[in-house]
UniProtKB/TrEMBL annotation:
It comes from Pyrobaculum oguniense (strain DSM 13380 / JCM 10595 / TE7). Keywords: Coiled coil. Pfam families: Zn_ribbon_RPB9. GO terms for biological process: DNA-templated transcription. The keyword Coiled coil applies. This is RNA polymerases M/15 Kd subunit. SMART domains: RPOL9. The lineage of its organism: Archaea, Thermoproteota, Thermoprotei, Thermoproteales, Thermoproteaceae. The keyword tRNA processing does not apply.
Length: 89
């Protein structure tokens, strides 16, 4: 990891033309990434298709509550809020 010498922000790899550079997302400072350092920034983890599908399925599921469950959740939320207000007083 490398930090920007101007403002201390973490620099991120960025493709500029055909060269990879480290760029500060805050101020735009750039420095050419050396061959040795480039290997440290490469993505090393791979996600299998099976795991990708599992993630997509999990994102598609939505929590559905009936009216009674919603009322119970609201009641619990209000109780928690009131209790936290009493603790801060």
């Amino acid at each position: 990891m490398r930090f920007c010498p101007k403002d201390g922000t973490l620099m991120v790899p960025y493709k500029k033309d055909s060269v990879t550079v480290l760029k500060c997302p805050k101020c735009g400072y750039e420095v050419k990434l050396t061959e040795k350092a480039r290997d440290a920034y490469r993505q090393r983890a791979e996600v299998s298709e099976e795991k990708k599908r599992g993630i997509m399925i999990a994102e598609e599921k939505r929590m559905e509550y009936d009216q009674e469950e919603m009322e119970e959740l609201r009641r619990q939320l209000l109780e928690n809020l009131q209790e936290s207000e009493r603790e801060t007083d």
